[in-house]
Amino acid sequence: MLPRTALIVYGIALLLLSLVSLNRYVLVTFYRRSRARWLDHPRALSIRELPRVVVQLPIYNERYVLGRLLRSAIALDYPKRLLSIQVLDDSTDDTVELARSLVNRYRAQGFDISHIHRSDREGFKSGALANGLQHNGAEFIALFDADFVIPPNFLRAMLPFMRDTKAGFATARRFAGAVGGGRPR
Q: Which of 2, 98, 140, 151 is the most exposed place for a label (fewest CB within 10 A)?
């Protein structure tokens, strides 16, 4: 009885391993057939093709990361005339004053940057984003959380993927350093 049970268990295990191997074979075959499509990056946009972009930075009591976030936003490698930055502030602490002073400093340096403060917080983050859209008519919106450091070439690397008429939005992996560490999805 024992040898027969052992053979049945062995047969079932062998069948399962064969199915897993077959699954791997199929996945590798599909990958190889479509690999060129996934590795093909669209060509970079020329200066004339660059669209107007608004960078939305929703914050709520983010005093300790606000400076770093704004420094990375103004360091974007993108023409100033096509870039608008919105600090969407729902803060209830001294972040409001810090944000206001930083925005004024960068505005004096020639950046199109605005501080939009709401005290009611209706809709929370999504409410702040919707409110920011009422103040800008840019073709594209880039949204970054307060704890994110924006790579300087992010917009130039992401926008070519948006040329596809089937694309409604794009997202990228979180990465440190230059774009290329994560391919937009």
A: 2
